[in-house]
Amino acid sequence: MVSAKAVRFNYRLRVSPAQERALLVEWDGVRFVWNRCVEASKKAQVASSPEHKVTCGPAALDKMLTAWRKELDWLRAGSSVPQQQVIRDFGRARAKTLQDVKDRLPVRQRRGMPGFKSRHRSAPSLNYSRRGFSLHEDPATGRLRLHLAGGIVVRPVWSRPLPSPASSVRVYRDAVGGWFCSFVVVAAQEPLPAVDRAIGIDWGVAVIATTTDDDHDLAHPQRRRSAQAKLAHYQRMMARRKPKKGKPVSTGYKVAKRQVAKLHRQVARQRSDDARKWAKGVVVDFDQIAAEDFRPRFLARSTMAKKAADAAIGATKAALVHMADKHGRDLRLVDPAYTTMDCSICGARAKHRLDLSERTYACEACGMVLPRDKNAAAVMVVRAGFVPLVLRAQDQGRSLRSWLPEPGIPRLQPWGGFKGASPSLRAGGRRGRPRRRSRSEAYGASCVGAGCVGAGCDAVLLAAGCAAAGYLGAGASPFASSHAR
Questions:
Q1: Torsion of CA 306, 309, 313, 319, to 10 degrees
Q2: For helices 58-71 and 17-47, what crossing angle results, to 10°?
């Protein structure tokens, strides 16, 4: 069954100088109503007490709006639809703040109370409900035009058709000065044909997305670095032309500030384009997606803050979630805990945490050696409940050795250590002193029971992985029995 949900469709607006002046006049009225709501909220907060609670909800503010419109002619000349909608926006913002206080969230995690909107610092934003706008065809061009309450008519750039009638529209201006409209519509899913393939995704900084399929790895595009020279140039222009406190800004400062905003918008669009194209390729080629439920906020406090911000991991993850939901793919977000310490083949967990400098994972139980991020991506697939790596490799007619690095990468030795590995990768209680282990401990009890004595053959890895994952019994594995000596 194809499901549908409410989404936003954004379009650029072609606005003439007269239309822009009309929109800014409407914004002045909306901003005035917002500031009056903030003032009323502050008075209600001061007047409230445990015995007498004073409320300031949307119902009370609507009555105040009626009085304000009777009192002020210029406010009454504007449309009441965006003024009533801004009261709804204010009510939601205030309710979220009070809920955070009630839930006793830490102060740094709470949303602040709505504040006053300045004429020079706040961006215009007008929200119209269904009764406040309409779409009519232009007789001259045959294209639809957006008619807003108050007699304002603007021309959207229809880059794609609306899937259904819009329930509301928000008209806003960005930092560069361009006008846009955002329609809320109900869009149905666009299912893609089943391909019966699974993929695991591990997020990172040097490589934004490391997957179990090398063709879908997303390298860091370094978008900010390409625009860094121009950005520094215009920021120095802003610094030279910054006015003194209390003085009006110059035209040169506004020009430099606009150029900085244009560069930021260009880089943001490039990142969004990269993320959407990569996400679309993943959902087309795979119908089972296991992605790390990564929250990159902590990276802003690390030495990798600038590069992590340029990677836009959160935006890439959001694009993947949106594409999977749009095309009906099975996307599962996996808890990232211990994904770098678990073995994707046998499920064994390392006894120590791997440093960021250690880019190779070597399992002490089954002998598997993989790049660290590739192993973590394969762990995502197993934890999500999809077909594990070992079975998928056999179905594709590949050897598990194709996943291993080139010669020179540390490999498991019969005594339990790793030849060529750093001391922290070696098995043992103390750093640099490997302990001896039995053959069953080194190669897995399942293959020893089958009589296999090969040092790290595919049968060893497959039997250990299937037994740990619970897909096949250790003794019932056909691959293990075929290697029995």
A1: -150
A2: 120
